[in-house]
């Protein structure tokens, strides 16, 4: 789907450049007073029609791509990835995962019968990097129980993550790079970001991550935090208030004399 959309974009770019060149040749070859001079208007109408058709095609491709990704996300909702699990020869990944869950997460009820599919991702190589284990569970409730208990794996070198699609993984990486690890995480295949304004944003694309506004909080003279505002307005306002206060003298008040009869 991504390759098809890139082909449409390349086609639109090529069509635009060729139409521009052809239009210049038409205008140069036909005098303005010629009876056939309306060919310019006809050409412009044809060009507008073709460009509109290409734009509509791009919109339809985006809708289809979004629907395909949603279906892919639903098919991965029972899947978890186990990272940092040592790899040995002739191993049984399902047995290894069950042992980790029994010992680390105290889930004695988890057995191989609860696992629908389990395998290592990628090709086998001789590097020291251990490939992640992809585990698909039969029961989504068990999968969620494991996911929300992943904090018990802290210090073991083993981590859990959701099996994100390519586009949502790129959005997750962009969110962590921009807002930090502690302010971005995944939930049910989507990326949750805590923006500078303290609001939770649910995003699925890099464009949606970049659309989160940058808001900078300010601190008053007493060191107390005040309401956050856009940086441009806050900084300009502070400069104006400071400059006016610094140049405006305080009015002097003379004490009144006591009244005498």
Question: How does this model look, in words?
Answer:
The chain has 261 residues and is of the alpha+beta class. The protein has three domains: 2-75; 76-163, L1 transposable element, RRM domain (Alpha-Beta Plaits, 2-Layer Sandwich); 164-216, no CATH class. The protein is elongated and about 85 Å long. It contains seven helices and seven strands, in the order H-H-E-H-E-E-H-E-H-E-E-E-H-H. Mean pLDDT is 79; it is low at 217-249.
What's the SSE blueprint?
Elements: H1 2-29, H2 39-75, E1 79-83, H3 93-104, E2 115-120, E3 133-137, H4 140-148, E4 159-162, H5 166-179, E5 184-187, E6 190-194, E7 200-203, H6 206-210, H7 231-247
Antiparallel strand pairs: 1-3, 1-4, 2-3, 5-6, 6-7
Helix pairs in contact: 1-2
The name of the CATH topology of the largest domain is Alpha-Beta Plaits
The number of E-state strands comes to 7
Order of helices and strands: HHEHEEHEHEEEHH
What profile does the largest beta sheet have?
4 strands, antiparallel
Q: What proportion of the residues form beta strands (DSSP E)?
A: 5-15%
Would you tell me the overall average pLDDT? Answer: 79
Under the CATH scheme, the architecture of the largest domain is 2-Layer Sandwich
Overall CATH class of the largest domain: Alpha Beta
Question: How much helix, percentage-wise, in residues?
Answer: 40-55%
Number of helices, where a helix is a run of at least 4 consecutive DSSP H or I residues = 7
Task: Tell me the structural class.
Answer: alpha+beta
Q: Order of strands across the widest beta sheet?
A: 2-3-1-4
CATH homology group of the largest domain: L1 transposable element, RRM domain
Distance between the termini: 99 Å
Give the uncertain stretches in residue-range form: 217-249
**How many structural domains does the protein architecture include?**
3
């Amino acid at each position: 789907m991504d390759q098809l959309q890139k082909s449409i974009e390349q086609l639109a770019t090529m069509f635009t450049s060729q139409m521009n060149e052809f239009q210049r040749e038409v205008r140069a070859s036909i005098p303005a007073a010629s009876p056939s001079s309306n060919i310019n208007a006809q050409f412009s109408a044809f060009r507008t029609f073709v460009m509109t058709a290409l734009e509509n095609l791009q919109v339809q491709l985006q809708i289809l791509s979004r629907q395909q990704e949603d279906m892919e996300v639903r098919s991965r909702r029972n899947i978890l990835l186990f990272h940092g699990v040592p790899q040995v020869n002739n191993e049984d990944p399902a047995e290894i995962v069950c042992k980790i869950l029994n010992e680390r997460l105290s889930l004695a009820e988890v057995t191989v019968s609860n696992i629908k599919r389990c395998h290592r991702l990628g090709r086998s190589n001789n590097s020291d990097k251990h490939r992640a284990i992809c585990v698909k569970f039969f029961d989504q409730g068990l999968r969620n129980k494991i996911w929300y208990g992943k904090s018990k794996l802290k210090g073991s070198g083993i981590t859990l993550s959701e099996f994100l699609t390519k586009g949502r993984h790129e959005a997750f990486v962009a969110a962590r790079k921009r807002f930090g690890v502690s302010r971005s995480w995944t939930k049910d295949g989507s990326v949750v970001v805590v923006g500078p304004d303290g609001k939770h944003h649910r995003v699925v694309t890099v464009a949606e991550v970049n659309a989160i506004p940058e808001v900078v909080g300010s601190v008053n003279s007493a060191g107390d935090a005040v309401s956050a505002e856009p940086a441009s307005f806050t900084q300009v306002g502070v400069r104006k208030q400071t400059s006016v206060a610094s140049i405006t003298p305080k009015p002097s008040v003379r004490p009144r004399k006591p009244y005498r009869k």
